[in-house]
Write a structure and sequence with these properties.
Length: about 170
Amino acid sequence: TPALPAREIAAAPVAPVQGSPLSTAWANPVIVVRAVEGAPGDGNQALILAIKQALRVRDFMVTEDPRQAVFQIDGKVEVAPPANGRQRAKVTWIVTTVSGGQVGRAIQENIIPAGSLNGAWGQVAAMVANAAADGVEELFGRPTTRKAQMVVPPTPALPVVPGRALPPPAR
């Protein structure tokens, strides 16, 4: 099979999130993103900025002050040595309470062209973070943004008036 572009790591499905049962106190979690480690290029910083943005877009309260947080997220990137022009890239996001108890984990993994993550991550970081934020939404019992966007409301029955055209379809 041909080598996948670097952005394919973002398309890798997030593994089912494993975590403890959610309590109603977790309905509006306050999260601090602590660190991302192990990414080549500018990946560590790019992923931190991207996951914060992805969580904020999903209406999570993201704080820079760990004293305000109830939960924290850490990321770990592992890129295997190149083999036949390709590398295995794995991004693990771990959600814990600030006291250290593990709440859940999301894992993204894919085969990418060798060295494709060694420079600026750019949009790749945003795609990886958005997929991870979907996993965080599931963890906290929220419908994911991706699933919410796929819901199409039913088309209402429109009256038919002779001699008149139907209105254009709603988008």
